[in-house]
Amino acid sequence: MTELKIFQVAAFTDRSFGGNPAAVVPLDSWLDDSLMQKIAAENNLSETAFFVPQGPGEWQIRWFTPLIEVPLCGHATLASAAVIHAKLEHADWPITLHSASGPLIIDIDADMYVLDLPANHPQPVDLPDGIESALGETVLESYIGKNEIYMVVMQDEASVAGLNPDFSALAAVTKHGVIATAPGDEVDFVSRFFAPAIGLDEDPVTGAAHCMLTPYWSKRLGKDELDARQISSRVGVLECEDHGDRVKLRGGAVFFLTGHIFF
């Protein structure tokens, strides 16, 4: 019988039942890929993060949705940093998490975690047939970024909040996901993220999406520091900074569950 610790942490929030919940599983060494995928499927959260120590202040990290491994996940990275800080009691910050997307630097600022992530600069694109109709709302601008993530810009916050996509249709015409965004009523911009093709009809708060949103809104609004809100039913709050090839995201973390996996 093997036993592993597991933590469930809500990222990009300061309150219970908000933000985006991620499962975090600290490891001494890597498990088989198939086993990590099964654990992620059993958790049935948008992402499960696994990490192993690599050296002083350094870990390797990987992320799995219930269906696939993904190259970058911001909220599960923040959740992992919270576990390293609060549960593993690591005291020397910043730390480095090595990933498929390169080194990710995480620091602590008061009660917030600061993620230094690679920017994903959006490029204008004509949407494939079916995306706009699957979203059910008029799109003003459309872009694509790395990992085949699409971004659509809409008229206003109400347009994004009112989206009720046809997830089956959306999964059929995308390989990853679609970010819907618009100017915010109370913040610089709002967004939602839909990725049924990788097992996430709607992701509550998406750090990787903000690696693409931040460069766009920074250029459009002419400012490097932005306040963002992902207006899913759970709501996520992020402070974003544009640093050219890098993006910094600030957010809080709240622990919900601590337990053990047996197999």
Written overview of the protein:
By secondary structure, this protein is of the alpha+beta class. The chain has two domains: 130 residues, Diaminopimelate Epimerase, Chain A, domain 1 (Roll), CATH 3.10.310; 122 residues, Roll (Diaminopimelate Epimerase, Chain A, domain 1). It is built from six helices and 18 strands. The protein has an 18-stranded mixed beta sheet that branches. The longest helix is centred in the C-terminal third of the chain and has 15 residues. The protein is globular and about 50 Å long.
Helix-strand category: alpha+beta
Strand count: 18
Main β sheet profile: 18 strands, mixed
Taking the alpha carbons of the first and last residues, their distance comes to: 6 Å
CATH fold label of the largest domain: Diaminopimelate Epimerase, Chain A, domain 1
Task: Quickly list its features.
263 residues; single chain; alpha+beta; 2 domains; 18-stranded mixed sheet; 21% helix; 6 helices; Diaminopimelate Epimerase, Chain A, domain 1; globular
Report a brief summary of the structure.
With 263 residues, the chain is α+β, with helices and mostly antiparallel strands. The chain contains 6 helices and 18 strands. The protein has helices spanning 33-43, 74-86, 131-135, 157-161, 167-173, 207-221, and strands at 3-11, 20-26, 48-55, 58-64, 69-70, 95-99, 102-109, 112-118, 123-124, 141-145, 149-153, 177-183, 189-195, 200-203, 225-230, 236-243, 246-251, 253-262.
